[in-house]
Amino acid sequence: MLSAVETRSVSPVFVGRTAELNTLQDALARATAGEPQALLVGGEAGVGKSRLIEEFAAAAAREGAVVAIGGCVEIGADGLPFAPFSTALRALRRELPAELAAAADGQEGELSRLLPELGEAPSGRHDEEGMARLFELTARLLERVAADRTVVVALEDLHWADTSTRHLLAYLFRTLHTGRLVVLASYRSDDIHRRHPLRPLLAELDRVRTVRRIELARFNRAEVARQIAGILATEPDPAQVDDIFERSDGNAFFVEELAVAAHEGCCTGLTDSLRDLLLVRVEALPESAQRVARIVAEGGSTVEYRLLAAVARLAEDDLIEALRAAVGANLLLAAPGGDGYRFRHSLVREAVSDDLLPGERSRLNRRYAEALEADPTLVPADERVMRLASYWYHAHDPAKALPAVLDASAAARRRHAYAEQLGLLERAMELWDSTPEDVRATLRPADYTEGYPPCGCDPATTPLRHLDLLAEAAVAGRLCGERERALKITKRALRLLEDDADPLRAAWFWTQRSRLVQALARGDGWRELGIAQDLVRGLPPSEVHAGVLTLAANWSMLHEPGPDALAAAERAVEYARMVGAREIELNARVTLGGLVVDSGDHEAGLTQTREAMDEALAEGVTQVAGRAYVNLPSELESVGRSREAVALLREGVAYTRKYGQLDAEAWIWGNLSDSLYALGDWEESAEAAANALRRGQSAKAQGMGAMCLAHVALSRGDVAEAHRQLRAAHAYFGSHDPVAQERLPLARIAVGVAAAEGRILDLREQVIEALDAGVPLGTHRYGWPLLLAAATAEADARTLPAAAPGREEFLERLFTTVRTLTTDAPIWLAHEQWVRAELHRAEGTATADTWSPVVTAFEQLERPYDLARVRHRLAEALLWATPGTDDDRDRATELLRLAHAVAEHLGARPLADATTRLAQRARLTLRHTSDPAPAPTDPATALGLTTRERDVLRLVSAGRTNRQIAEELFISPKTASVHVSNILAKLSVSGRGEAAAVAHRLGLFASGSDGRMATR
Questions:
Q1: pTM of the model
Q2: Which of 677, 684, 688, 692 lies closest to 728 in space, CA to CA?
Q3: Residue 385, burial from CB neighbour count under 10 angstroms (0-12, 13-18, 19+)
Q4: Read out DSSP for 615-644?
Q5: What contacts 435, CB < 8 A, 6 or more positions away?
Q6: Which of 780, 751, 779 is nearest to 766 (CA)?
Q7: Which of 74, 150, 910, 928 has its CA 20 to 30 A from that of 92?
Q8: Residue pLDDT, tens place only, 624-635
Q9: What span, in angstroms and rounded, lies between the C-alpha atoms of 825 and 712?
Q10: Contact 418, 131 (CB under 8 A)
């Protein structure tokens, strides 16, 4: 029979931690109110982190929360990719099967990388967004599951977490904005040495204001006394408390061990070594139990019973007795699922494992590996490959370890755990030379490499080469963000290829270097692409050749569009078709369509891009479809077809969000901001720009958002905000890889800021620098606005003495550039007329006849702000004409009224102020005084509701929450909340129900056929 103390070394009384538990309870209350919570719990090993989480989890469950706990798994020195998230999601699936299935609907394949029970992970090329896509879908899954109930996800032992788990946790902590969700993670603070991989993450999360960090201190003497009393079920002797407190230094786990040892009379002569203290009870066990404890210690965090039986090789009765003794001594515990065993505390497992002899450790790992090979069902399917690789590696058997490690690397790649894949591939390269040749000869590239296309050989029959491992490792390093390591790997590979004439492989590695050089801000990548093109020139068509041409064409489209880029894109399409590389072909066709539009053949180019996009959508080539949703609307905007672009961009937002393509989504938001700005919806334009900044993962995508925000702020007259966002955009874009679509708009904004601040000489420098860098073919859409900003600034500064030096030369430079830019669409023909008119105004020669055709041109276009600006200029010319007529004055008055109304509506303060000043100088009134203003026929307009506020009110009236409004309108919940507050103020009501009643009473929305409110 087991004694009472043996079964109660853990105190039944929860001691101390009042402040910490209150913090957790507060987080639970906030989450229940709809505000997601993120917390970190740190403390040294044994201080009581797990007990705190257990107490909190029990309290949360009593309050109706669903609790899912996952722990980071350590197998030898290897963490299983995403193990804590897989465990937690599995727990959620058990508790909420229908809810989780509904939340994962449509994304089961992608989410199966974390939870294999959901289905088969899709195959296909791996890309930089693969991991971000998985992270976004995971965040959305948790938000949906926690939409109507409070969910607590607790992840323990983060100090053992694999890199992918750390990245996913950081992503969740930064991006969770909705749902009744608490995400909690614990870690050992004493394990976090200077080079520990968790240290940078902790530093990063310290800067995230929404993350709360709890550090558990050791117990004081009074708390130790209470803990001992709970363990012994009686008040302890004060001298004993003093002794245990001194020895344990307040560490809860050591208090437990010392209390039990003292009660059992094992303290006499006890060494001060903590390791020896932890081994005291192990050494008191029967030999069979000690042997089982050693086996469990080497097997990992948890060892399944059937696996343990296969490795221990004991009779079943003997094994059960040995386990009973270990469990009775409170060294081992049954695993949460009841299917295996684990140490009560990892400190004991580490002590037992450290006590193993080197030969003993490798022998145990061999036994584990042999047992698992003989019966793969001994462990969960999603852990099998990783654990087998670890066991064989630590068994020091290269012949067995190399194939197992390569299998594990392929499994990590399928889960988008690219950091773990890279580590395993580096381990495979370490094993390569010591693995027998006959074993290596059985390995095939088709089984282990995906990122590396065939290079003149059949990957299913050709033996795997060391070079193949380098190629796969280079891709894995690029995809997981370890670009420096990847760059070194490509350098090693190219050095090996110097003695091995293999131009296709060499070209492939040079394309990888091109991508890495750009990502590391070491250059624009063209030199590397040029070498790759030289290597494949004259070779028969191949997938590598088609890929090189596609990359070169895409680079040229952004940097040097023209005939050479067009020819490269056409060859890329042709070669890809010849070798059946469908994804490369579709990608090249998207590039080709854009280049055809840039060349002036708009309809042909737009049709080509649309066809490639439709085929990508039909065939499920999601990456190409996402890119087309970025490029096609951009091409439509480039020829002034903004309304068509907006419709397509809204589709693109939904598509890229569905497939978790965060960067593509960010670029789409940026393009949407541009098109909405052009159409005069500045409020939504600013929201779209903010979404680009928030959703973007890469620096350039975020730079697009900042640049759009700067543009809107400048037009509204907020020069300080424009300047701030301009600096942010420059920081995001960097200076290593300038392209016209970034360089020219940034220069235009800088010119506007300088003009607003009266820095005319700085302004000229900005313009000259931008023009010297060139306006390549197809980038006139960015060149015309820059010229317009420069010409307008010069005209406004015409009478300033400080602007006189250098004026003539600068204006001549602008006139010269105007003559060279393309006017291949009505929008740019109108801009040419506008720029020329501003240049004439700068020379003092502009008249009403100069401005009338400009106004006429813009009246044919859907550009309300541009039209308002040129109407203001025409009014100005009419008013100061000599001699003026009453008709001129009446026409100017109407033009000013129209321009002022648009400026007021958009919030374009500089234009509104300019029209007001001009009216005052000319003694005109901007309001009709003969008749009272007619009441707006639309009640929403009478209430002062903007278009976006009308959309929000419609959804409020239909009973939508802020989160649901945000999802439907593609805005953040915070923005939705601001809109709701503004609506309540404008309607003079105190709540959403009253707002819905007002909308119903005024008949703002008719009932739709689907039961929702439809706009009148």
A1: 0.78
A2: 692
A3: buried
A4: HHHHHT-HHHHHHHHHHHHHHHHHTT-HHH
A5: 398, 399, 401, 402
A6: 751
A7: 74
A8: 999 999 999 999
A9: 24
A10: yes
